[in-house]
Design brief:
- By secondary structure, the chain is α+β, with helices and mostly antiparallel strands.
- It has one domain: Acyl-CoA thioesterase, double hotdog domain (Porin).
- It is built from five helices and 13 strands.
- Strands 1, 2, 3, 4, 5, 6, 7, 8, 9, 10, 11, 12 and 13 form a 13-stranded antiparallel sheet that branches.
- Helix 2 packs antiparallel against helix 5.
- One of its GO terms (biological process) is acyl-CoA metabolic process.
- One of its GO terms (molecular function) is fatty acyl-CoA hydrolase activity.
Length: about 290
Amino acid sequence: MNALTQELVELLSLEKIEENIFRGQSRNLVGKRVFGGQVLGQALRAASYTADRPAHSLHAYFLFGGDVNAPIIYEVDRLRDGKSFVSRQVRAIQHGRTIFTAMVSFAQSEEGLNYQIQEPDYPAPMQVKSEAELKKMLVEFVPENVRASFMRDRHVEIRPIDPMNPYQPQPAAPSYAHYIRTHDRIAAEIDEVSLHQAIAAFYSDFTLMTTALRPHGLSWLSPSLQCASIDHAMYFHKPFRVDDWMLYDMDATVSANSRGLNFGRMWQNGELVCSTTQEGLIRLREIETQ
């Protein structure tokens, strides 16, 4: 596999310490704090190790920022093992405190009512520039001290449909979309549903929270802004592959009380395969209450 894909798989493959307890390593993906998508993916994988069927929903809260220089311990509580549903609670622990908690529900596929909204009409992935190409066009705007980290390749390939310059954001509609996939195919010997779902959870945190910033003419790089994910929900509707292009279509419905509410939908081959919801902190420091 491509080195970045291999690193991503390793990041989302946890070490079993003892029954229901797992350890995940951390990587510096977005700065001093652990990337939320890493914790989402690792927590989902930890829960999946204790279940005998795919996940269908995840509801999580980010409680404290994670330390990228320390591993994370995941404790799984087996709340229910039913005929239709299996329920797990996961706690991510670092330096003796819980930094993240999630409820995960699992269910087998079954026949039933079937409906979905219409997929949005966007250019095909190969008709838009990759994020790597767009970054090269922005080099002149990037301060020298952060240029290396800004330009480095992500562990996934992203192709934005309506990109903006994060150093010169302008007010825009509260919507955003990109195509996303791993750089390489998932190797056959590790090709498991739980890994695809964990990588999709990792995917799902890219840019979702910042959708609510667009109508305000702000970006995650705006110097006056304090951003942080508060919670995250994810629903798995149908089977998918993370090594094939997925369209991630996002929109925000409201920003109020220094928070923004964002929704996302992942499409593959015309099928709505996942849905996401996230509320994020979007606080302007200069008007912060003292």
